[in-house]
Amino acid sequence: MKKFTKWLVALSCVIVLLAGCGSPTNFDQSSMRPDIDMLAGVQRAVLEYQQDTGVLPIKTRDEDTDIFIKYLIDFEKLVPKYIGSPPANAYEKGGIFQYMIWDAEQNPTVKLVDLRTPERMREIKIRFSATKYPQFKDKVQEHVYTINFENIGYKEAVTVNSPYSNNQLPFIVTAEGEIYIDYSMDLYTYMKENNITAQPGEDIREILVDNFPVVPAYSLPYTVDENNEPVIDYDPINK
Fold this sequence. Notes:
The protein has 239 residues and is α+β, with helices and mostly antiparallel strands. The chain has helices at 2-22, 36-53, 116-131, 184-193, 205-211, and strands at 97-102, 109-114, 136-141, 144-147, 159-161, 168-174, 179-181, 222-224, 230-232.
């Protein structure tokens, strides 16, 4: 009887452990994905704050900060008067997104920045520092290269999950050693599937901004060539 009791207790512990690992109720999936209702709630709070104060609830950033991460929302200015708490998927709550404002001057619109990308970028930069200089592999175009990941200790090329598709997006590096995510695949696919035509010189990243909740942060500008295909629009002299 004692043996049976011990076995029953052990089996119960295993069941509890398995339930904890497998049950979706024990893992807050909302912290890992965009949510339209959360975006709408923050959008309402931002507009109400602007109406009351005449300014946007944003953190102070340098003027030359990249436009996709320039106007990050300061939730301390919104909580608790305009919103109960930051959304579950916000960085402030342990989520993977920073909330930001796009088109701050004309039409303030709440968007998301995926923080998984800069985390991987930091890892790669640390590896670069061990070799004292960036490890270039193949030339993508003038001043832009793929990364030789084997030379910095990786077994295979590092990629990140695309916020727009099932693609695994690669990293690229400029001649100056700055790392960026390459959205060429997503831009090409989305433009082709939706019959979108752009003009050379036009920054086509705005196509993604207009159609998705997540902005293409940590990227170089893109335009189209004579075949309406995405190309990186980068010149270190004129950047």
